[in-house]
Amino acid sequence: MNPVPETDVTLRRATAPDARPAADVWLRSFAAALPTVVSPRSADDVRDHFRNVVVPLREVWVADAGEGGGVVGLMVLNGDLLSQLYLDPDWRGRGLGDRFVELAKERSPEGLHLWTFQVNKPAHRFYERHGFVAVEFTDGSTNEEREPDVRYVWEPES
Prior knowledge:
This protein has about 160 residues and is of the alpha+beta class.
């Protein structure tokens, strides 16, 4: 485990210099959480995509552990789509994902939706614990990984 306490981690908007460390978190997290899913992009392609598209064109938030750890998580919002939420594997289970979801709900109080792979059962449990409901299952023919996925929706209580 990283020696930096979770309470010392800051959630902040990403800036251009965060693109590479955020992409590296994405790569480590994807490999650890989804070992059976083949990414259609090379590591260099992922880094280029973060530098040229994700960070400059999306609402990207990072979990910054400062000098003790740097970027250890990221969340990408695109309107009411929570398009990405990835944590460095060493930082899972320490409350950062909960903080990101709370932030996403604050940023999109009318509701959110997201996609996750059907094989990612820990993600299903995580999102369901946060009030998301599975509303659609696909065969994966429309995602670049060609992996069956599920769409989750969160709507605020009336």
